[in-house]
Amino acid sequence: MDRAASYKLTIPYLADALLSDNQDIDERIKLAGVTLFVDKVNWLKYPYKPIVKLFTVYSEEYLWICFDVKGDFFRAKATVDQEAVWEDSCVEFFISTGGENGHVGDLGTIYRNFEFNVLGVCLSAVGTKSERVMLSTEEMKRILRFPSIGRNNLPSEGDCFDWKLSVAIPLRILGIEPGSSFTANFYKCGDLTTHPHFLSWSCINAANPDFHLPQFFGRMELGKS
User: Fold this and answer.
1) Is-contact 90 117, C-beta < 8 A?
2) N or C: which end of the chain has fewer CB within 10 A?
3) Across the chain, which distance is largest between two alpha carbons, in Å?
4) Angle 87-91-97 from CA coordinates, rounded to 5°
5) Can you give the pTM of this predicted structure?
6) From CA 113, how far away is CA 126, in angstroms rounded?
7) Could you give the domains of the chain?
8) How confident is the prediction along the chain (225 residues), in pLDDT tens digits per residue?
Protein backbone atom coordinates (compact mmCIF):
# COMPACT_ATOMS: atom_id res chain seq x y z
CA MET A 1 0.00 0.00 0.00
CA ASP A 2 1.19 3.52 -0.77
CA ARG A 3 2.74 5.08 2.33
CA ALA A 4 1.16 8.44 1.50
CA ALA A 5 -2.30 6.87 1.71
CA SER A 6 -1.75 4.71 4.79
CA TYR A 7 0.59 6.52 7.17
CA LYS A 8 0.80 9.87 8.91
CA LEU A 9 3.96 10.94 10.68
CA THR A 10 3.48 13.18 13.72
CA ILE A 11 6.32 15.63 14.38
CA PRO A 12 6.72 16.46 18.09
CA TYR A 13 7.12 19.87 19.70
CA LEU A 14 10.26 21.15 21.44
CA ALA A 15 10.44 24.64 22.96
CA ASP A 16 12.69 27.19 21.24
CA ALA A 17 14.34 27.85 24.60
CA LEU A 18 15.82 24.35 24.52
CA LEU A 19 17.33 24.99 21.08
CA SER A 20 18.76 28.46 21.68
CA ASP A 21 22.33 27.30 22.29
CA ASN A 22 24.02 26.17 19.06
CA GLN A 23 26.07 23.65 21.00
CA ASP A 24 24.46 20.16 21.14
CA ILE A 25 21.57 21.14 18.85
CA ASP A 26 21.97 17.84 16.99
CA GLU A 27 21.66 15.83 20.19
CA ARG A 28 18.64 17.79 21.41
CA ILE A 29 16.82 17.23 18.13
CA LYS A 30 17.70 13.51 18.22
CA LEU A 31 16.45 13.06 21.77
CA ALA A 32 13.17 14.91 21.30
CA GLY A 33 12.46 14.27 17.63
CA VAL A 34 10.93 11.50 15.57
CA THR A 35 13.40 9.35 13.59
CA LEU A 36 13.10 8.64 9.86
CA PHE A 37 15.23 6.69 7.39
CA VAL A 38 15.84 7.98 3.89
CA ASP A 39 16.41 4.52 2.45
CA LYS A 40 14.26 3.95 -0.63
CA VAL A 41 16.25 3.11 -3.77
CA ASN A 42 13.61 3.98 -6.35
CA TRP A 43 15.77 3.55 -9.48
CA LEU A 44 17.83 0.38 -9.87
CA LYS A 45 20.22 2.15 -12.23
CA TYR A 46 21.47 4.04 -9.14
CA PRO A 47 21.92 1.38 -6.44
CA TYR A 48 24.37 3.22 -4.20
CA LYS A 49 22.83 3.69 -0.76
CA PRO A 50 24.56 5.77 1.92
CA ILE A 51 23.03 5.40 5.37
CA VAL A 52 20.75 8.37 5.98
CA LYS A 53 18.81 8.99 9.18
CA LEU A 54 17.08 12.18 10.11
CA PHE A 55 15.43 13.51 13.23
CA THR A 56 12.78 16.22 13.22
CA VAL A 57 10.95 18.40 15.76
CA TYR A 58 9.25 21.76 15.61
CA SER A 59 9.31 24.77 17.90
CA GLU A 60 7.49 28.10 18.21
CA GLU A 61 9.23 29.47 15.11
CA TYR A 62 10.90 26.64 13.21
CA LEU A 63 10.76 23.16 11.80
CA TRP A 64 14.07 21.58 12.85
CA ILE A 65 15.64 18.74 10.85
CA CYS A 66 18.89 16.96 11.69
CA PHE A 67 20.27 14.89 8.80
CA ASP A 68 22.85 12.21 9.70
CA VAL A 69 24.65 10.77 6.65
CA LYS A 70 27.19 7.94 6.60
CA GLY A 71 29.11 6.66 3.60
CA ASP A 72 28.67 9.62 1.27
CA PHE A 73 31.22 10.72 -1.35
CA PHE A 74 32.32 14.31 -0.94
CA ARG A 75 31.42 17.04 -3.39
CA ALA A 76 30.69 20.68 -2.51
CA LYS A 77 30.97 22.96 -5.53
CA ALA A 78 27.99 25.18 -4.65
CA THR A 79 29.08 27.93 -2.25
CA VAL A 80 26.25 30.48 -2.61
CA ASP A 81 22.52 30.00 -1.99
CA GLN A 82 20.40 29.07 -5.03
CA GLU A 83 23.31 27.36 -6.80
CA ALA A 84 23.09 23.72 -8.00
CA VAL A 85 23.39 22.02 -4.59
CA TRP A 86 21.71 18.82 -5.86
CA GLU A 87 24.89 18.04 -7.80
CA ASP A 88 26.85 17.97 -4.52
CA SER A 89 26.60 15.80 -1.41
CA CYS A 90 23.01 16.88 -0.76
CA VAL A 91 19.93 16.35 1.44
CA GLU A 92 16.47 17.74 0.73
CA PHE A 93 12.99 18.43 2.16
CA PHE A 94 9.91 19.07 -0.01
CA ILE A 95 6.51 20.12 1.39
CA SER A 96 2.98 20.82 0.17
CA THR A 97 0.41 22.23 2.60
CA GLY A 98 -3.38 22.22 2.58
CA GLY A 99 -3.46 25.98 1.97
CA GLU A 100 -1.82 27.92 -0.83
CA ASN A 101 0.97 25.37 -1.20
CA GLY A 102 -1.48 22.51 -1.57
CA HIS A 103 -3.61 24.08 -4.30
CA VAL A 104 -4.06 21.89 -7.35
CA GLY A 105 -4.81 23.75 -10.55
CA ASP A 106 -4.20 23.43 -14.26
CA LEU A 107 -0.44 23.49 -13.73
CA GLY A 108 -0.42 20.99 -10.87
CA THR A 109 0.31 21.01 -7.13
CA ILE A 110 2.12 23.93 -5.51
CA TYR A 111 4.96 22.84 -3.23
CA ARG A 112 8.19 24.12 -1.70
CA ASN A 113 11.63 22.55 -1.97
CA PHE A 114 14.57 23.04 0.41
CA GLU A 115 17.83 21.49 -0.80
CA PHE A 116 21.09 21.66 1.16
CA ASN A 117 24.60 20.57 0.36
CA VAL A 118 27.09 19.44 3.00
CA LEU A 119 28.10 23.06 3.70
CA GLY A 120 24.50 24.13 4.37
CA VAL A 121 24.25 26.04 1.09
CA CYS A 122 20.56 26.06 0.19
CA LEU A 123 18.39 26.13 -2.91
CA SER A 124 14.70 26.83 -2.33
CA ALA A 125 11.70 27.70 -4.48
CA VAL A 126 7.89 27.57 -4.50
CA GLY A 127 5.40 26.83 -7.25
CA THR A 128 4.29 24.01 -9.49
CA LYS A 129 6.72 21.61 -11.09
CA SER A 130 6.82 23.63 -14.29
CA GLU A 131 6.63 27.16 -12.84
CA ARG A 132 8.78 27.83 -9.79
CA VAL A 133 9.89 31.05 -8.06
CA MET A 134 13.09 31.19 -6.02
CA LEU A 135 12.83 32.38 -2.41
CA SER A 136 14.11 35.89 -1.84
CA THR A 137 17.49 36.67 -0.32
CA GLU A 138 15.78 37.82 2.88
CA GLU A 139 13.77 34.59 3.15
CA MET A 140 16.92 32.52 2.58
CA LYS A 141 18.70 34.36 5.39
CA ARG A 142 15.98 33.23 7.81
CA ILE A 143 16.77 29.55 7.19
CA LEU A 144 19.27 28.50 9.88
CA ARG A 145 21.97 25.93 9.03
CA PHE A 146 24.40 24.11 11.35
CA PRO A 147 26.80 21.96 9.26
CA SER A 148 29.24 19.53 10.86
CA ILE A 149 31.85 20.31 8.18
CA GLY A 150 33.14 23.82 7.56
CA ARG A 151 34.96 25.36 4.64
CA ASN A 152 38.28 25.05 6.51
CA ASN A 153 38.13 21.28 7.10
CA LEU A 154 36.83 19.87 3.82
CA PRO A 155 37.58 16.31 2.70
CA SER A 156 39.10 15.83 -0.73
CA GLU A 157 36.60 15.54 -3.56
CA GLY A 158 35.52 11.93 -3.97
CA ASP A 159 36.54 10.87 -0.44
CA CYS A 160 34.06 8.67 1.43
CA PHE A 161 32.96 10.54 4.56
CA ASP A 162 30.25 10.96 7.20
CA TRP A 163 28.46 14.23 7.88
CA LYS A 164 25.58 15.90 9.69
CA LEU A 165 23.52 18.95 8.95
CA SER A 166 20.87 20.52 11.18
CA VAL A 167 18.56 23.11 9.66
CA ALA A 168 15.73 25.26 11.01
CA ILE A 169 13.12 26.43 8.49
CA PRO A 170 10.67 29.11 9.70
CA LEU A 171 7.12 27.83 10.06
CA ARG A 172 5.94 31.08 8.47
CA ILE A 173 7.81 30.27 5.27
CA LEU A 174 6.39 26.75 5.29
CA GLY A 175 2.84 27.95 5.96
CA ILE A 176 2.26 25.57 8.88
CA GLU A 177 1.50 25.80 12.60
CA PRO A 178 0.82 23.39 15.51
CA GLY A 179 -1.83 20.89 14.42
CA SER A 180 -1.24 21.50 10.69
CA SER A 181 -1.43 18.53 8.32
CA PHE A 182 0.57 18.48 5.12
CA THR A 183 2.42 16.18 2.74
CA ALA A 184 6.19 16.05 2.40
CA ASN A 185 9.18 13.96 1.46
CA PHE A 186 12.84 13.77 2.44
CA TYR A 187 15.62 12.97 0.00
CA LYS A 188 19.35 12.23 -0.32
CA CYS A 189 21.12 12.72 -3.62
CA GLY A 190 24.41 13.58 -5.26
CA ASP A 191 23.96 13.87 -9.00
CA LEU A 192 27.62 14.57 -9.82
CA THR A 193 29.32 12.74 -6.95
CA THR A 194 31.50 9.74 -7.75
CA HIS A 195 28.56 7.48 -6.77
CA PRO A 196 25.35 9.18 -8.01
CA HIS A 197 22.32 8.24 -5.90
CA PHE A 198 18.69 9.28 -5.42
CA LEU A 199 17.15 8.08 -2.14
CA SER A 200 13.79 9.03 -0.63
CA TRP A 201 11.82 8.53 2.58
CA SER A 202 8.48 7.98 0.83
CA CYS A 203 8.63 5.73 -2.24
CA ILE A 204 8.53 7.30 -5.70
CA ASN A 205 6.94 5.35 -8.56
CA ALA A 206 8.48 6.98 -11.62
CA ALA A 207 10.56 5.74 -14.54
CA ASN A 208 13.51 8.10 -13.97
CA PRO A 209 14.98 10.00 -11.00
CA ASP A 210 12.63 12.86 -10.14
CA PHE A 211 11.99 14.31 -6.69
CA HIS A 212 9.52 16.92 -7.97
CA LEU A 213 6.51 14.60 -7.78
CA PRO A 214 4.25 15.72 -4.91
CA GLN A 215 1.80 12.87 -5.58
CA PHE A 216 4.32 10.63 -3.83
CA PHE A 217 4.82 12.80 -0.73
CA GLY A 218 4.00 11.16 2.61
CA ARG A 219 1.40 12.50 5.07
CA MET A 220 2.61 14.44 8.13
CA GLU A 221 1.34 16.68 10.88
CA LEU A 222 2.71 18.90 13.63
CA GLY A 223 1.69 17.54 17.01
CA LYS A 224 -0.06 19.93 19.39
CA SER A 225 2.39 21.96 21.47
Assistant:
1) yes
2) N
3) 47
4) 115
5) 0.92
6) 7
7) 3-222 (2.60.40.1190)
8) 344 444 689 999 998 777 766 668 889 999 999 999 999 999 999 999 999 999 999 999 999 999 999 999 999 999 999 999 999 999 999 999 954 444 444 457 999 999 999 999 999 999 999 999 999 999 999 999 999 998 888 999 999 999 999 999 999 999 999 999 999 999 999 999 999 999 999 999 999 999 999 999 999 999 987
